[in-house]
Specification:
Elements lengths: L1 E2 L4 E2 L4 E2 L5 E4 L4 E2 L4 E3 L5 E4 L4 E2 L4 E3 L2 E2 L4 E2 L4 E2 L4 E2 L4 E2 L4 E2 L4 E2 L3 E4 L4 E5 L2 H24 L25 H4 L6
Parallel strand pairs: 1-4, 2-5, 3-6, 4-7, 5-8, 6-9, 7-10, 8-11, 9-12, 10-13, 11-14, 12-15, 13-16, 14-17
Antiparallel strand pairs: 17-18
Length: 176
């Protein structure tokens, strides 16, 4: 397993490097409960600034530079997700599928729906930058602590990152 600089690995992410090689390049993130695995003699790769959402499964595939895999999506063996593409939440990308750069992939099985706009790619990049910052902040603030027995009164919450807003707040209800 090779983990590059500025990567974020979320709690309970599973990196099974027992058969194939796992490579997370600089600034990539693998969020909570993701699984990354592959067959012997295969590489499973997340390229620079790749962004893997909660619960996604990557098996023997390649996620391109600045691409995102949505929550609970599955990307199978020998699939290649092109640079700056987005795999929608819950999509299933079949083995051997090659996705062009700047594509939105959705469905089961996954199909290229359309080309992404510059605005959508910028939104993704801002979110990935927040995970780079989280990796740095986590490393800088590591210390031994005692568990809390209850939530502290007036415990502050982190503000949203400027420019990043959950899609459900910015989409019209008729878009769903």
């Amino acid at each position: 397993m090779i983990v590059g600089p500025c990567c974020y690995l979320g709690p309970h992410a599973v990196l099974r490097g027992d058969f194939g090689r796992l490579i997370l390049q600089e600034g990539s993130n693998l969020q909570d409960t993701c699984v990354m695995h592959g067959f012997p003699d295969s590489d499973t790769v997340i390229e620079v600034d790749g962004h893997i959402g909660h619960g996604a499964v990557l098996h023997g595939c390649r996620i391109g530079r600045n691409a995102m895999v949505g929550m609970n999506a599955v990307v199978m063996d020998n699939a290649v997700i092109g640079e700056s593409s987005i795999v929608a939440a819950l999509a299933f990308v079949k083995a051997n599928m090659t996705v062009p750069a700047r594509s939105l992939i959705a469905g089961t099985p996954g199909k290229v729906v359309r080309e992404l706009t510059d605005q959508e790619i910028a939104w993704k990049s801002i979110g990935t930058a927040a995970y780079r910052q989280l990796a740095a902040r986590s490393r800088a603030s590591l210390r031994a602590v005692a568990p809390l027995r209850e939530v502290e009164p007036d415990r502050p919450r982190l503000p949203l990152v400027q420019g990043v807003e959950p899609l459900f707040r910015s989409r019209h209800p008729s878009d769903s």
